Amino acid sequence: GAVVSQHPSWVICKSGTSVKIECRSLDFQATTMFWYRQFPKQSLMLMATSNEGSKATYEQGVEKDKFLINHASLTLSTLTVTSAHPEDSSFYICSASPGLAGEGDTQYFGPGTRLTVL
Amino acid sequence: QKEVEQNSGPLSVPEGAIASLNCTYSDRGSQSFFWYRQYSGKSPELIMFIYSNGDKEDGRFTAQLNKASQYVSLLIRDSQPSDSATYLCAVNRGRDDKIIFGKGTRLHILP
Questions:
Q1: Residue ranges with strand state E in chain A
Q2: Residue A95, beta-bridge partner list
Q3: Which of A9, A45, A107 would you mutate first to test chain B, the one with the most B CBs within 10 A?
Q4: Which pLDDT band, with edges at 50, 70 and 90, does B2 fall under?
Q5: At residue B93, does pLDDT exceed 90?
Q6: Residue A41 has what pLDDT?
């Protein structure tokens, strides 16, 4: 149980285009999902917390107009990188907490999406 | 003081030996503690979580929590080359329940 999927697993796009990444909880409902970004050889950086049915909460320094998050259902959150630029190239990872008994706030991660902006 | 601190490593351990990974945290209100493993180019995968003081064992892995000293550790017995990865410690922050990740310790198991 507690499986999280992401799509696509990798994407290459031209500078100025927008890219949408999907995060799905496959066997549980997630009222909260999290979006992280990780540059090569660097640590995980939390970008935003995605709440079903409400606006996402962005971390300091993350542009909410550039990284659009939509959490339309209990099993799907999307991250759209708008007007992508080469500096947005990174590994984007989502996670979710199923809230299982005895596991509390344990987060399970999706496999990640590698974005390359040319 | 950083909220979650880990030695970046690399920590080199001979195959078959015990690998010991340490993590300290600053928020005394923290209640949940996690260890994740991340292979290069992959996303983190949960190894185990611990909530109570003491030891928690799962196969070759043992998590140890000492809330008084504010540290949590992970022991890997009978280390295998496949254990070579970066190990992330994560702690929930008491004041807002946000999970804070350490920068990770790179572990290298020597064949």
A1: 4-7, 10-13, 19-25, 32-38, 45-51, 57-58, 67-73, 76-81, 90-96, 108-109, 113-117
A2: A34, A109
A3: A107
A4: confident
A5: no
A6: 85
> Which of B7, B6, B11 is CA-nearest to residue B79?
B11
How big is chain A by its Cα radius of gyration, in Å? Answer: 14
Q: Does A104 contact B104 at a Cβ distance shorter than 8 Å?
A: no
Query: Tens digit of pLDDT for each residue in A49-104?
Result: 998 888 899 999 999 999 999 998 999 999 999 999 999 999 999 999 887 767 77
* CB atoms closer than 10 angstroms to residue B71: 16
What is the DSSP code (8-state) at residue B10? P
Work out the minimum CA distance from A55 to partner chain B, whole angstroms.
17
Residues in chain A: 118
Please give the C-alpha separations between residue B20 and each of B23, B51, B107, in angstroms, as whole numbers.
10, 19, 10
Residues 21-80 of chain B with CB under 8 A from chain A are 32, 34, 36, 41-46, 49, 51
Q: pLDDT tens for residues B35-83?
A: 999 999 999 999 999 999 999 999 999 999 999 999 999 999 999 999 9
Q: Give the SS3 label for residue A59.
A: coil
Does the pLDDT at position A4 exceed 80? yes
